[in-house]
């Protein structure tokens, strides 16, 4: 039984709150805190349980987070605000003796660049304080890393290639909308791609490589090579991997909008002067785009995210392995009022918190999810709405 604070009350935070509230035996008290108190209060009302309450915090400000922690004295904070707040929240955790979990690695506001170094630099301090920070515990990063750890534990003596494949075959009926925070999403997609090959990082132009991949229950979809943060920790933690890549599907309509947004300067993250006011074009764009939280109602279809791995099995013979989850937008909406992208991120965040609070994940320091035992996590993920499937020695297409 433990008290948790969820920071961030967007699409993902809403799902985390709903899922934690389904397990009062683990999460005895839940506080949802964000910049806009009214959003937190609305989620508290929708959940309607006496052990769930709302508070307000600006998580860019360490002192405000410290005050929040002192008011509530949580055992763990689940950070599902934006990647910009990771370090301030980790600083407050060290000040107050609070454990930490997030779903996205730190990114400075003024540079579209993400890597683990900033958060890994906290490892000694968390370890010395006897605290745990679990990094990247959404779906990808998150379940993608746990899937890889599960493959290593149960099937492979040496994994050689890893391809993480992420398909959203849903249709929300809007001309253009992003499935999670538009600012973070557009920054991720418009930067150079990168993949790991024979000990080197190979840089590609944004969305330069694509190929058709076939997703279970969905069919073939154009999939684009992107850089994704979990590649960095996975090649470090599984050094037999010779090639690691990440693929995501995009429709032509989405890509055309994205190209126009970039060409007209609306993806810029530097300040421009507008009638004497400084604005960041991408932040302004976010204000006029559909809110990802509001997409759920008319969203049809499903997501399919998994890992395709090749290498040597435990007997040293070549094998391929594909492990994946498909998640329905409609089912996610019926349960939490949010679409499947928020759902597939929020469920693993709750399960990671559950693993920590029940002592099943008990390493101290700053850890990526693949460092923990994958078995209890994957059992709980399946039991909490994200069942997964395996294909052994199938055609990986890659
Ligand atoms: P939203 O934009 O819907 O929500 C973000 C929330 O963070 C809002 O409630 C916002 O509050 C709050 N917030 C922003 N800045 C601050 C601040 N300074 N202090 C306090 N609260 C703040 O985003 P999503 O829910 O879609 O995404 C949340 C996180 O999940 C992101 O970091 C995203 O990168 C990550 N993610 C991870 C995935 C994975 O698989 N690993 C997949 C999808 C997302 P307010 O509304 O009041 O401004």
Notes on the structure:
The protein is α/β, with parallel strands linked by helices. Helices cover 35% and strands 28% of the residues. It contains 14 helices and 18 strands. The strands form three sheets. Strands 7, 8, 9, 10, 11, 12, 15, 16 and 18 form a nine-stranded mixed sheet that branches. A seven-stranded parallel sheet has the order 3-2-1-4-5-6-17, sandwiched between helices. Strands 13-14 form a two-stranded antiparallel sheet. Helix 1 packs parallel to helix 2 (37-47), helix 1 packs across helix 13 and helix 7 (143-154) packs across helix 14 (374-383). The radius of gyration is 20 Å and the shape is globular. It binds NADPH dihydro-nicotinamide-adenine-dinucleotide phosphate.
Give a concise summary.
By secondary structure, this protein is an alpha/beta fold. The protein has helices spanning 11-21, 37-47, 62-72, 86-96, 117-120, 123-128, 143-154, 182-190, 230-237, 252-263, 281-288, 329-336, 340-357, 374-383; strands at 2-7, 27-34, 52-56, 76-79, 99-102, 132-135, 156-168, 193-197, 200-204, 210-215, 219-226, 243-249, 272-274, 277-279, 302-313, 318-328, 365-368, 388-392. Strands 7, 8, 9, 10, 11, 12, 15, 16 and 18 form a 9-stranded mixed sheet that branches.
Category by helix and strand content: alpha/beta
The N- and C-terminal alpha carbons lie at a distance of: 45 Å
Q: What is the residue-averaged pLDDT? A: 96
Bound molecules: NADPH dihydro-nicotinamide-adenine-dinucleotide phosphate
Q: Main sheet, how many strands, which sense, barrel?
A: 9 strands, mixed
Number of helices: 14
Using the alpha-carbon principal axes, give the shape: globular
Taking all Cα atoms into account, the compactness measure Rg is 20 Å
Beta-strand segment tally: 18
Helical content (DSSP H or I, runs of 4+):
25-40%
Unreliable residue runs: none
């Amino acid at each position: 039984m433990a008290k948790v604070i969820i920071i961030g009350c967007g699409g993902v935070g809403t799902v985390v709150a709903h899922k934690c509230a389904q397990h009062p035996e683990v999460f005895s008290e839940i506080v949802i805190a964000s910049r806009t108190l009214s959003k937190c209060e609305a989620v508290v009302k929708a959940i309607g349980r006496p052990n769930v309450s709302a508070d307000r915090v600006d998580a860019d400000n360490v002192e405000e987070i410290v005050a929040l922690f002192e008011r509530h004295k949580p055992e763990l904070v689940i950070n599902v605000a934006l990647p910009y707040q990771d370090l301030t929240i980790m600083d407050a955790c060290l000040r107050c003796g609070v454990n930490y979990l997030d779903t996205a690695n730190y990114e400075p506001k003024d540079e579209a660049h993400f890597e683990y170094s900033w958060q890994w630099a906290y490892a000694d301090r968390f370890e010395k304080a006897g605290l745990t920070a679990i990094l990247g515990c959404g779906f990808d990063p998150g379940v993608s890393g746990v899937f890889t750890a599960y493959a290593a534990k149960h099937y492979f003596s040496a994994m050689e290639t890893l391809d993480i494949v992420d398909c959203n075959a849903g249709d929300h009926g809007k001309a253009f909308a992003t499935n999670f925070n538009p600012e973070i999403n557009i920054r991720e997609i418009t930067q150079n791609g990168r993949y790991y090959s024979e000990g080197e990082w190979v840089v590609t132009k944004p969305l330069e490589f694509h190929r058709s991949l076939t997703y279970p229950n969905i069919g073939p979809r154009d999939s684009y090579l992107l850089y994704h943060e979990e590649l960095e920790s996975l090649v470090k933690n599984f050094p037999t991997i010779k090639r690691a890549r990440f693929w995501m599907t995009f429709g032509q309509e989405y890509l055309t909008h994205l190209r126009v947004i970039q060409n007209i300067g609306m993806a810029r993250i530097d300040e421009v002067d507008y009638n004497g006011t400084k604005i960041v074009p991408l932040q302004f764009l976010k204000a006029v785009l559909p809110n990802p939280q509001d997409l759920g109602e008319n969203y049809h279809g499903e997501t399919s995210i998994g890992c395709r791995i090749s290498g040597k099995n435990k007997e040293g013979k070549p094998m391929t392995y594909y492990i994946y989850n498909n998640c329905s937008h409609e089912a996610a909406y019926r349960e939490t009022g949010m679409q499947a992208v928020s759902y597939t991120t929020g469920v693993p965040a709750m399960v990671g918190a559950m693993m920590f609070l029940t002592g099943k994940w008990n390493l101290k320091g700053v850890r990526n999810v693949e460092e923990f035992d994958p078995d209890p996590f994957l059992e709980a993920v399946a039991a909490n709405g994200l069942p997964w499937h395996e294909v052994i020695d199938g055609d990986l297409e890659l």
